[in-house]
Design goal:
Largest sheet: 8 strands, antiparallel
CATH superfamily of the largest domain: ATP-grasp fold, B domain
Strand order of the largest sheet: 13-12-9-10-11-14-21-19
Distance between the termini: 49 Å
CATH class of the largest domain: Alpha Beta
Radius of gyration: 21 Å
CATH architecture of the largest domain: 2-Layer Sandwich
CATH topology of the largest domain: D-amino Acid Aminotransferase, Chain A, domain 1
Number of strands: 22
Helix content: 25-40%
């Protein structure tokens, strides 16, 4: 086991890793930008190093500074968290070259699954269903249009190296295709330094279902059930739950087996998720794989009792998984992401000082947060300040707990999405579980207007 782990991240995920390490008797190193000097992960780590100015490009994304911080503090492993460099193959390679263990998959696995076109090809080669589309990146607009016409409109043009909704454009007919194609390429080049795009059939009302994967270096690869991440705004997840209201035991087995098959095809090691789209007719398709811990990992932890971060650390240290089969899913879990944003101003970020911070509590209520009264939310990073997770015996009880928890979650000084999320919890479509990735644009559009 490692002696000291550096967490190459900030906020609540840095605290989450610190807690797991402490329970395992492993020391930790926090890195921080000048804007995060008063952050809790700095206070609770055994050691800390300032790695630069506030902008992420000058601090959290500077690989040499992270490696230097690990070397001067004697860290023998680095946990990347999520975001920043978590899916950066160069970072994983640099760690290896510096004799520091990267707590995550191999650089080859990161590269293969990080390129969406390459990931599609890998899944197709292993018989995992994928959304109909081009076999790889398409450079020529006429060739791309040919693929679009062969699979039928509407289609979606996606950045091969993309994520977070960037470099994605929907074309509903041939007249709209050329403009959408060029816009997607331009956005992809600007956001990722790679203008490659591919074409897929656009599903109008799918659910976004992801399967939590764990793999080790001893040949074990399992899934820990699904999470339904269908409630989104501009391709950003807002609410996650497990089990999915649309899932049946038979469908879970088919989709879960496909997810494990996809991960096994690259001998996956570590924690990751196979993301799928579930269409209205019951068809399901591989979308992408995230080769890291997810923001929403507490959902799986609460419904299975498995500590995913500890499993990541054990696997990276060469140990086998502590479980070798899909565990029992107990009850129902819902997670809401609490962002420092103003719903009344089109969810504009709301940085500033938090004057009052009173989180809810009670049986089955979990809060993952780095915020506190007196904490200043910086304007430089993601606006999420907390994750509220509620566990109930069934979905109705989990919903009831979440409504009460949101009602008693007090944050003053900055605007938050708490009131908006409370309205979603009361929406008839959400209560019935009848949601899809376009829910907030269609049936739930009034929730955005009333915000």
């Amino acid at each position: 086991m490692f002696k000291k782990v550096l967490i190459a991240n900030r906020g609540e995920i840095a605290l989450r890793v610190i807690r797991a390490c402490r329970e395992m008797g492993v020391e930790t190193v926090a890195v921080y930008s000048e804007a995060d000097r008063e952050s809790l992960h700095v206070r609770f780590a055994d050691d800390d190093v300032c790695i630069g100015p506030a902008p992420a490009r000058d601090s959290y994304l500077r690989i040499p500074r992270l490696i230097a911080a690990a070397e001067i503090t004697g860290a023998d492993a680095i946990h990347p968290g999520y975001g920043f460099l978590a899916e950066n193959a160069e970072f994983a390679e640099t760690c290896a070259a510096s004799n520091i263990t990267f707590i995550g998959p191999t650089p080859v696995q990161i590269r293969t699954m990080g390129d969406k076109a390459a990931a599609r090809a890998a899944m197709i080669a292993n018989g995992v269903p994928v959304v109909p589309g081009s076999p790889g990146p398409v450079e020529d607009v006429d060739e791309a249009l040919g693929f679009a016409e062969s699979i039928g409109f509407p289609v979606i043009i996606k950045a091969a190296a993309g994520g977070g909704g960037k470099g994605m454009r929907v074309a509903r007919d041939a007249d709209d295709f050329a403009r959408s194609f060029q816009l997607a390429r331009s956005e992809a080049l600007s956001a990722f330094g790679n203008g490659s795009v591919y074409v897929e059939k656009y599903l109008e009302r799918p659910r976004h279902i992801e399967f939590q994967i764990l793999g080790d270096s001893h040949g074990n690869v399992i899934h820990l059930g699904e999470r339904d991440c269908s409630v989104q705004r501009r391709h950003q997840k807002l609410i996650e739950e497990s089990p999915s209201p649309a899932m049946t035991p038979d469908l879970r087995k088919k989709m879960g087996d496909a997810a494990v098959k996809g991960a096994k095809s690259i001998n996956y090691v570590g924690a990751g998720t196979i993301e799928m789209l579930l269409d209205e007719d019951g068809s399901y398709y591989f979308m992408e794989m995230n080769t890291r811990i997810q923001v929403e990992h507490p959902v799986t932890e609460m419904i299975t009792g498995v500590d995913l971060v500890k499993e990541q650390i054990r696997v990276a240290a060469g140990e086998p998984l502590s479980i070798t089969a899909t565990p029992e899913m107990r009850g129902h879990v819902i997670e809401c992401r609490i962002n420092a944003e103003d719903p009344n101003r089109n969810f504009q970020p709301s940085p500033g000082k938090i004057d009052v911070f009173h989180p809810p509590g009670g049986n089955g209520v979990r809060i993952d947060t780095h915020a506190y009264a007196g904490y200043t939310v910086p304007p430089f990073y993601d606006s999420m300040i907390a994750k509220l997770i509620c566990h109930g015996r069934d979905r109705a009880e989990a919903l009831a707990k979440m409504r009460v928890a949101l009602d008693t979650f007090i944050v003053q000084g900055v605007s938050t999405t708490i009131p908006f999320l409370g309205r979603v919890m009361a929406d008839p479509h959400f209560v019935e579980g009848a949601v899809h990735t376009k829910f907030l644009e269609q049936e739930g559009a009034y929730l955005l207007k009333d915000a």
